[in-house]
Design brief:
The structure is a single chain. This protein is an alpha+beta fold. It has a single domain (28-202), classed as Beta Barrel (L,D-transpeptidase catalytic domain-like). The chain has three helices and twelve strands. It has helices spanning 4-24, 157-166, 181-202; strands at residues 30-34, 39-44, 50-54, 60-64, 73-77, 83-90, 102-105, 108-110, 130-132, 139-142, 153-155, 172-176. The protein has a nine-stranded mixed sheet with strand order 7-12-4-5-6-11-10-9-8. It has a three-stranded antiparallel sheet with strand order 1-2-3, with no helix packed on it. 27% of the residues are buried. Residues 7-25 have low confidence and may be disordered.
Length: 203
């Protein structure tokens, strides 16, 4: 009987770990796959409908949420399709507070704001630099990038002010699982190649 207790405990721990992993890799109704820097494939698993959306010629945000297999970053993409800013983010925790996948639009901007559903106990604003993109209050805002949120996107102080100033009401916000970073890496490599070519021609 004594030998069975540790095996039981180990089995329960393994089942608990599997449950946590299942939460991390939960299938969301909407799936967003980037085909290029500006083209995204959207699939609705409930209806089976899918479509491609091209955001070329528009300023927009891409958020690759903070989950295994994703980047945990926000990207600002300008009208020319250039990724001109990127910063670390934290997003909604598994278990009912996951950030929604989808292609949304900025609904409003508020420089100072306190969450109505999750107010801070000390009375200090906890959603400053708010860039809201869903009717139920999901937003990019100043927050702790080391702590999971209740569905919003926490952006660090070094990034949020710049993004807030750039954001406009109506601007698309792409929220996805998976990686967008490869497009940034490609862009950085092209920039480095251009610098090397310039240096070799002028020195």
């Amino acid at each position: 009987m004594i030998k069975r207790i540790p095996l039981y405990v180990i089995a329960m721990l393994l089942l608990g770990t599997m449950a946590v992993e299942a939460q991390h890799f939960k299938t969301h109704r909407i799936q967003i796959d980037p085909l290029s820097k500006t083209v995204f494939h959207k699939t609705d698993h409930k209806t089976g409908q899918s479509s491609s959306i091209d955001l070329q010629g528009r300023d927009f945000f891409v958020v690759s949420v903070r989950e295994p297999g994703s980047d945990g970053r926000v990207y600002a993409v300008d009208i020319d399709g250039t990724i001109w800013w990127s910063g670390v983010v934290s997003s909604g925790a598994a278990g009912g507070h996951e950030t929604s996948n989808g292609i949304f639009h900025v609904i409003l901007k508020r420089r100072f704001h306190m969450s109505h559903s999750h107010p801070s106990s000390n009375g200090v604003n906890n959603m400053d630099f708010e860039i809201e993109f869903t009717p139920d209050g999901e937003a990019l805002h100043l927050g702790n990038v080391h702590a999971m949120s209740h569905g919003c996107i926490h952006v660090g102080r070094q990034d949020i002010g710049v993004l807030f100033d750039w954001a406009k009401v109506g601007m698309p916000v792409v929220v996805m699982r998976g990686s967008y970073k490869r497009f940034l890496n490609r862009e950085v490599q092209v920039f480095r190649d251009d610098i090397e070519m310039f240096n070799s021609l002028h020195y």
